[in-house]
Amino acid sequence: MGTFAGYMGKMNITKEKRKCFGSQMMKLLNYGGMMQFERVSLYGHDVILISPVELSEEGKVDFWYNYFEESSWENAGFHMDDSYFYSNKIGGCEFADVILAAYTLYEMYDEDPGFAECNGEIMDQRFYGGWLNHILGTEFTSKKRYNLWENAEYIAFNRMDYDDPFSRNELRCLIPDKLLKAAGGTELSDLLYIMYGTESLKVDDIVPASYPDDVYQCKMALIKLQDNCGEHFYEYLLQFLQLDRNKREKNTDTNLTVLAKLSLYLPARVFVYLAAEIRQEPFWKRWKEWKDKVYHDEQMKQYASEELQEQRREWKEQIIPRIKTAEFLRQDSWYAFYNTPEELKRKGNYYLTDDDRIFWWDGTDEVILSDGMNIWLEELADRHRKLMELPDAGCGNEFESIHFIKDFIILLDEICSYYKRIYPFKTMFYDFIQNSEKKEYRAAAALLKMLHEENKEEGKIIEYVRGNWDMGNKNVTQNIARLRLKRYLSVMTNRGLRKRYFGF
Questions:
Q1: Does residue 182 come out as left (phi exceeding 0), alpha (psi in the -120 to 50 range) or beta?
Q2: Rounded-to-integer distance, Cα 36 and Cα 179, Å
């Protein structure tokens, strides 16, 4: 058992859109913190290096680790050429959020019905679409979700082994309650009649010439048809529904007079779900059998006023509100902070902020550092300058250029062993190795060692994590000591930010 995500649809991305789609997919995986690994073994020590996911020469990427969650899950990946994305077990935190955003991107591009789903449940598109609009600069809307009948039909046909292929739950996932005002209309009415029946239609309560009135008239005519046809009711009905518009208009069968008139503006599905209700039989199974056999040439009446129709169009075309990355990846489930140790309770719960996204800082408002982070970085920069003034640019001779690589490898291994899952970025590691003769780098390594020693007392709280990391308390796994080390390594990786504070 576990949590699995997927896409209920064909992933039909047209060739002319695949390049843009692929670029956006890689960007959301990058900013969502999906990482790849490289292992370096030197001087008897192993160091695991991380880097944002990148396409191989074959245009493929495979990954299983998220920088923010710091957990490994089963493989997921993307193939650029055919716009194919896959995943397996995804957990329930940051890794899962990004995977579901990836599947939601398909929904925005797929010209056919399609939905991001998790364990079989269709996801709320607005949450994931909001982050896509933010991180990609897009203006995606939920308009496609309002193709209610087409979507419901697709969902039901893919769930025919369920007792209820399209229930109220699927409708609420497809269109959350707060958005139903824009979904009002005949398609929504049909779905509700299928789910709940038409017993609520009472002749004395119906507004003449309204859609409920036409549905009610159709129901009464079908009841009469059943009385006249008996066991041949379905056979007779199907023969009628297979007629084209011209033949229905010229109908001379008195059993079909009312039905023929209604069929000129009511969809055939109305006749079928009413017949299924009358016979107390499932609708969706019969509709799947009949859909391609019955007429689709009706000319629907306009039951709603022009003003209401225009208002609904405006609602449907509203851009999904943007959600910033730190908010999107925020984890607030009950188990995230379950059993917080007493010594951490007064510090409040940990929530991801832009301070933890230093690696992605680029000078724009994508990552905005807090005042506290700016002060801390200025303090570190001052300490770095003072280390630069020492003859050996470090503590004693530990980071002399001749021994730098060995000392640096040992330090990184010690940090990871003590604080757990503190992995340096690949670009930072090789940058430091290649510039080991420069005082700026040796001083930065010396400062890293100091931070390691200074934070040990606070960092030992990590010992509370036993067993699976993903089940660990967020206040423990993201304790401030670990964060300081992790953030410092990110600053040393981000050359623009490093230059701004440390001058190299």
A1: alpha
A2: 39
Instruction: Collect all residues with Cβ–Cβ distance below 8 Å to 485 and sequence separation of at least 6.
Output: 415, 419, 422, 448, 451, 452, 455, 459
> Of 68, 88, 172, whose CA–CA distance to 474 is shortest?
68
pLDDT tens-place string over residues 50-79:
999 999 999 999 999 999 999 999 999 999
What is the C-alpha to C-alpha distance for residues 49 and 425, in angstroms, rounded to an integer?
Answer: 5
Cβ atoms 115, 308 nearer than 8 A: no
CA 57 from centre of chain: 27
pLDDT in tens, 249-261: 999 999 999 999 9
- Spatial separation of the C-alpha atoms in residues 290 and 141, rounded to whole Å: 33
Sequence-distant (6+) residues with CB within 8 A of 504 are 438, 440, 441, 444, 498
Reduce the DSSP state of residue 75 to 3 states and report it: strand
pTM higher than 0.90, yes or no? yes
DSSP 370-437: -HHHHHHHHHHHHHHHHHHTSTTSSSTTTT-TTTHHHHHHHHHHHHHHHHSS---BHHHHHHHHHTTT
**Sheet-wide strand order for 34-42:** 45-52, 34-42, 60-66, 72-79, 84-86
Integer Cα distance of 25 and 206 in angstroms: 50
Q: Answer yes or no: are the C-beta atoms of 350 and 475 closer than 8 Å.
A: yes
Distance, in Å, from the CA atom of 198 to the CA atom of 210, rounded to the nearest integer, reads: 15
Mean pLDDT of 97-124: 96
- What does the pLDDT look like over 298-323, one tens digit per residue? 999 999 999 999 999 999 999 999 99
- By the 8 A CB rule, do 284 and 149 touch? no
Give per-residue burial for 261-292: e unless 16+ CB within 10 Å, then b: bbbeebbbbbbbbbbbbeeeeebbebbeebee
What residues form DSSP beta bridges with 141?
319
Can you name the residues that pair with 114 across neighbouring β-strands? Answer: 9
Looking up tokens 């518009």 gives 245
What does the alpha-carbon distance between residue 49 and residue 428 come to, in Å, rounded to a whole number?
Answer: 9
DSSP-assigned beta bridge partners for residue 39: 48
C-alpha dihedral sign at 154, 156, 160, 161 = positive
Cβ neighbour number for residue 334 with a 10 Å cutoff: 6
Could you give the CA distance from residue 177 to residue 83 in angstroms, rounded to a whole number? Answer: 33
